[in-house]
Specification:
Blueprint (H helix, E strand, L loop, with lengths): L5 H6 L22 E6 L23 E7 H4 L13 H14 L5 E6 L13 H19 L8 E5 L16 E2 L7 E3 L4 H18 L3 E6 L1 H8 L11 E4 L12 E2 L2 E2 L20 E7 L14 E6 L5
Parallel strand pairs: 1-2, 2-3, 3-4, 4-7, 7-8, 8-11
Antiparallel strand pairs: 1-12, 5-6, 9-10, 11-12
Helix pairs in contact: 4-5
Length: about 300
């Protein structure tokens, strides 16, 4: 899901070396309650139901697709104008979940705009809160139109490096939502947090769903700092740090690659992998860590179904 270099990645065909697409010799994800899955752009899940996780084997344990995108919603042009969703993967994950009781099924995330791309930005926390709530309302409306098994509404909060707003409006204020022209080169963490809170509070007040956020420790601290505005002890988390391109030689067991001998997931906002709200790790793929799966950037995820209350 990580959007850095996404436009370039989508245009570059990566040819897999012979044997590169071979599945790893595994018996499936572990320990009990953990599932391998994918997100965003399509990855080939071959065969018939119950579906197997591509490249790794074991059950196909879930799919998280983009239900909406602030730039797409507002009609902006540029490389951020897209919806990263696979109807095939969504249906396959849903079938595994409802028919075979495997995985977490289909889920959704919203590509979040910060205060600096709010069409009504005025520098107040009340307006930033309203902007977050407006995005949440649209996300809930989008979710209502399809499968939604994994009851976490994810905010995608990152610094994509793409047009029209390379920071998605978290670090800068733009002359208009789609202009790409910076008029203020800083945003107070209090406004960023008000935007986050507006989304969180709206989903909580208007649905029975849980709220989660996709980000990394480095991005999170850059946007929200390290003080009280950065702490999210009661929000579910999905991290993409660290990532690997070596998907054939390393795979996660629990929160570490290759059963503890490789890198381990790093969460943020005051949480660690032992926190009850640590749910997902995008351990391979995304625009910034190309792994050659299905042409450019297949996104591979580790999902813990034990902690979702």
């Amino acid at each position: 899901m990580k959007r850095t270099l996404l436009a370039l990645a989508a245009c570059v065909a990566i040819v897999l070396a012979s044997g590169g697409a071979a599945q790893a010799a595994t018996d499936g994800d572990g320990p009990a309650g953990f599932w391998w899955g994918t997100d965003s752009f399509p990855v080939t899940v071959s065969g018939s139901a119950p579906y197997a996780m591509p490249y790794l084997g074991g059950a196909y344990g879930g799919y998280i697709g983009m239900t909406g995108n602030w730039a797409y919603w507002l009609g902006c042009s540029g490389s951020e104008h897209f919806i990263a969703f696979s109807s095939a993967n969504n249906s396959q994950a849903h079938t595994n979940y409802v028919t075979y009781h495997e995985g977490v099924g289909s889920g959704a995330y919203w590509f979040m705009g910060g205060p600096g791309v709010d069409p009504h930005y005025n520098g107040t926390t009340s307006e930033a809160t309203a902007w977050g709530a407006a995005q949440a309302a649209r996300a809930l409306a989008d979710i209502a139109n399809g499968y939604f098994d994994y009851k976490v509404v994810w905010m995608d909060i990152e610094l994509p490096g793409d047009t029209p707003a390379p920071d998605n409006g978290w670090d800068s204020v733009y002359t208009s939502s789609c202009s790409g022209v910076v008029k203020q080169s800083s945003v107070p963490t209090s406004l960023d947090r008000a935007d986050f809170n507006g989304f969180w509070d709206y989903v909580t007040a208007h649905s029975s769903y849980k709220v989660g956020v996709y980000s990394t420790a480095s991005v999170w601290s850059r946007i929200f700092g390290t003080g009280s505005d950065s702490l999210i002890p009661h929000t579910y988390e999905w991290t993409y740090e660290p990532e690997t391109t070596n998907y054939t030689g390393a795979y996660p067991n629990g929160w570490c690659l290759s059963q503890g001998s490789g890198s381990c997931a790093q969460f943020f906002g005051g949480q660690t992998s032992s926190s009850p709200y640590a749910l997902m790790w995008q351990w391979s793929g995304g625009g910034g860590a190309l792994n050659g799966i299905d042409g450019f950037n297949g996104d591979l995820d580790q999902i813990d179904s034990n902690r979702l209350g």
